Amino acid sequence: MGTDQPRTSAGESIVGAAADLPDDALVLGLDVGGTTIKGEVTDAGGTALAVGTVATPHGPAAFDAMGELGERLLSELPEADRRRVRRAAVVLPGLVDTARSVAVFSSNVGWRDVHVGDRFAERWGVPTLIEHDVAVAGWAEWRYGAGQGYENVCVVILGTGISGTLSVGGRLVRSGYGQVGEYGHVPVRRVGGLPCPCGNTGCVETVASGAAIARAYTRRTGREIGGAAQVFALMSTDPDAAAVVEDAVDALADGLVGIVHAACPELIVLGGGVAGAGAALTEPLHRALSDRLRLVPAPRVVLGEFGARAGLAGAALFARRGALT
Ligand SMILES: [Zn+2]
């Protein structure tokens, strides 16, 4: 770490600071989504002392909204508690370059190459880390949620899109080039598949994301449906719904089978909105993987424990630990 790193008045490095905080410390976590920014100040037990949500403005203005929300939450604390806040973490969507502290790209929120730098640390007066939201959510599920105690875990977040994390040998796999865990963009329907927003054809996401499941049901039946959860709910009585889910599970299994061969995870943890389907998803996915695997054992498939809170809970845990270790 260079000597030109920004520092707090206490002399602590703002960008690095990868060490556990003492138990009496509080942390500020922000989870930035496409529609809302959620924030919390929490203690070591995970109890929230201040909570807030604001709408996500489009474009780089979102960073001003993050700064304001953090400031508001800190100002709501009694002075004695305010002094106990020792670190913050902001988890961002899209592509994030943590080494250069740059929010590289978010198609949802509409920013490109925003230099985050020490803007939050200066405004809030505490060291502030930034990270990729899915990396943090997956790490939290692995280390503190459904994957606790396992060394080799694949976390798949199924929502509007599909991505996740991979932990091998007790370490979260990271890459200096691009982002690890873009499971949604493994092509599985190259012939006759649907176009994917990424530019490829027949990606996992075009069949197995929440939006894709709802669209497939409407294409097949001509009937509008509120979302993937309703398709899952109809499965036992509606053969079209069952067929759509089966197709989604097949695509997901096709996409994951290469990762299972490559990394032999003991456990696959499913998070995100679509995972709300529960056993209607985990059991057929485990069967579909078992059908496809000959050499390596089929991993267990379980639901995440943090649900939709994985990003925010993960931000607090990340701020407390100081690193995704
Ligand atoms: Zn794609």
Question: Mind explaining what this structure looks like?
Answer:
34% of the residues lie in helices and 22% in strands. With 325 residues, the protein is α/β, with parallel strands linked by helices. It has a 5-stranded mixed β-sheet, with helices on both faces. A 5-stranded mixed β-sheet has the order 11-10-9-12-13, with helices on both faces. The chain has a 3-stranded antiparallel β-sheet with strand order 5-6-7, with no helix packed on it. The longest helix has 25 residues, at 239-263. Mean pLDDT is 93; it is low at 1-16. Zinc ion binds next to loops.
CATH topology of the largest domain: Nucleotidyltransferase, domain 5
CATH architecture title of the largest domain: 2-Layer Sandwich
The chain-level structural class is alpha/beta
The CATH superfamily title of the largest domain = ATPase, nucleotide binding domain
Coarse morphology: globular
- What's the helix count? 10
Q: What portion of the residues fall into strands of 2 or more residues? A: 15-25%
Give the N-to-C terminal Cα separation: 18 Å
In the residues, how many domains can be counted?
2
Which strand order does the major sheet show?
A: 3-2-1-4-8
**Fraction of helical residues:** 25-40%
CATH class categorisation of the largest domain: Alpha Beta
Q: What does the largest sheet look like?
A: 5 strands, mixed
Order of helices and strands: EEEHHEEEEHEHEEEHHHHEHEH
| pLDDT < 50 runs, ≥5 residues | 1-16
Number of strands: 13
Listed once per kind, the bound small molecules are: zinc ion
**Rg over C-alpha atoms, rounded to the nearest angstrom:** 20 Å
Mean pLDDT: 93
